[in-house]
Amino acid sequence: MIELYHYVPVANGGKVLMALHEKEIPFRSHWIDLHAFEQHSPEYLEINPEGQVPALVHEGHVITQTSVINEYLEDAFPHSPPLRPSAPLEAARMRQWNKYIDDVVMEAVSVHGWHTGAGQIARGYSDEEFDILMARVPLEKQRIKWRQARAGFAQEKLDDCTAKVAEAVARVEQALEQGPWLLGEFFSFADINFYAYCGGGLARMFPQIGSSATCPRVLEWVERMEARPGVAKALATSAP
Ligand SMILES: N[C@@H](CCC(=O)N[C@@H](CS)C(=O)NCC(=O)O)C(=O)O
């Protein structure tokens, strides 16, 4: 049985939840509350020493990093509905999208998410309480990010991230000229990946970018994504 440790069904957690439901793979869900900093608890660090979610456990083995997890699911469950094209060139195209989304889009969207969401959580603690929580964060990069979120990111950084999101949306808008999904007719992990970071929340987080005047195809693609039973099931995931 697959075990998935995750939080709300957006961004990184949503990416694996959507893959599991689309591939119709049964799994047991373990809710890790980021608002309560459960991802840095000693119990969870035994599963993922980096203190990040999601983490997948299969037959006693822990797998982390969402794009790695999703391709693992493809390889370990070959009879589930495929989300990676079988032709090597098409698979490479999918991975090119995933690399760009993981390296650029995820980071750009997450700075905005952390500026508001994580910032609010972090400011709910006193300086002393926050220092104690930060001492448990294993990754230095994440400790810095939590502190930046608490103080608020510089406007220059926010503007740079907004520009990166706008460019990514323009690239996806162009790709969708070729068909309903990022790889044309084939629905793949690349669609799940972009939707998780930048699809569902696009119009709400970036109204100036996600409008029908600028990206009509992307907005129609968002509707197509949300009409998929596996995606809808994943999005309905809530706290136990
Ligand atoms: N590159 C990682 C990123 C994972 C990640 O950033 N997870 C976030 C939640 S969306 C997290 O655990 N944040 C809490 C923290 O770092 O304290 C992946 O793809 O799995």
Query: What is the CATH class designation of the largest domain?
Result: Mainly Alpha
Give the bound compounds.
Answer: glutathione
Number of helices: 11
Query: Strand percentage, roughly?
Result: 5-15%
Subunit arrangement of the protein: single chain
Which geometry do the CA atoms define?
A: globular
Percent range of helical residues: 55-70%
Low-confidence region ranges? none
Main-sheet strand order equals 2-1-3-4
Write structural notes for this entry.
The chain starts with a strand and ends in a 5-residue tail after the last helix. The chain is globular, with a radius of gyration of 18 Å. The protein is of the alpha+beta class and 240 residues long. The mean pLDDT is 97. The protein is built from eleven helices and four strands; from the N terminus they run βαβαββααααααααα. α1 (11-22) runs antiparallel to α8 (189-199) and α1 (11-22) crosses α11. Glutathione binds at residues 11-12, 34, 39, 51-53, 64-66, 142.
Give descriptors for this structure.
240 residues, alpha+beta, Glutaredoxin, Glutathione S-transferase Yfyf (Class Pi), Chain A, domain 2, 2 domains, 11 helices, 4 strands
Short précis:
The chain has 240 residues and is α+β, with helices and mostly antiparallel strands. Helix content is 59%, strand content 8%.
Helix and strand layout, with pairings?
Blueprint: E1 2-6, H1 11-22, E2 27-31, H2 42-47, E3 55-58, E4 61-64, H3 66-76, H4 88-123, H5 127-135, H6 140-151, H7 155-175, H8 189-199, H9 202-205, H10 216-227, H11 229-235
Parallel strand pairs: 1-2
Antiparallel strand pairs: 1-3, 3-4
Helix pairs in contact: 1-3, 1-8, 1-11, 4-6, 4-7, 4-8, 8-10
The protein binds glutathione.
